[in-house]
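Input.
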Amino acid sequence: MAMLCNGDTACICATVISPPQLSFARNKIDLVKFRVADETGTMDITFFNQSWLKNTFKIGSTFVFHGKCEALGNLRSMTSPVWESPDNQEQTGRMVPRYSLTAGLSNLMMMRAAAQILPQCQSAICDIFDPTFRTQYDLCDSAYAHAHIHFPDSPETLDIARRRLAFEELFLFTLGLGRLRGRREQVEVIPCHPIDMDGFYNALPFTLTNAQRRSVEEALDDCCSGRPMNRLCQGDVGSGKTMVAAACVYFMAQNGRQSAMMAPTEILAQQHFNGLSPYSKALASPALCSLAP
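Output.
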């Protein structure tokens, strides 16, 4: 206790050495304050609006406290720490989960619910990976992962459980993407016709980079394939993603098709409209000139 510095979060086992005193602060806030000690020093404990604790902490009784230490010289204190009896530790002296909470729920309530439900659900947890697959990728079984993601015995068991659950999530996500991709392969659409894109490129006051031209060509090849296209064009700000999209819009207009360029904000949509309108007018395409933000 004496080694704690200001701001340290610690768990201490200490004995009550002074009777709890109940006092009242402004705004009718009641305070329960008492002093505890271990073999290294003393610490003041304060609770707000829990006047019933005055009769709980009796001189000579020992408790475990977990909280943030406030240090001023040789004085140590904790305000509203988590406290438990050494004989019944649920939240102290161990790794505990932190759940997303809502009104009326506490972390302790969620912990107790998980501790009650997990043993009953172990037999119902279906492992999608067989033992050979788990051995190949160094994965624990599903029941172990679910038990230790809530109540790990050590940082190592937590990492083992987290790795298994993360692997499973990414595995299923990849399978889902594969099914979507396969579904698109089975769908036929009316293909577009190749066109000469020099009219678009020559209307620009600058020359597209090789990477930009390659991105455009790959997208247009997809449009001519007779299969639905779903592409992600990724690049830094200013790398030319908008011009790649504009080239696709031009291509679709020349094929007599409709297209839409969407933006996540109205401001960005207006910027794209203002920036692309001069090019669409220069290309003299009614389909492009009729665009509106």
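The chain has nine helices and seven strands.
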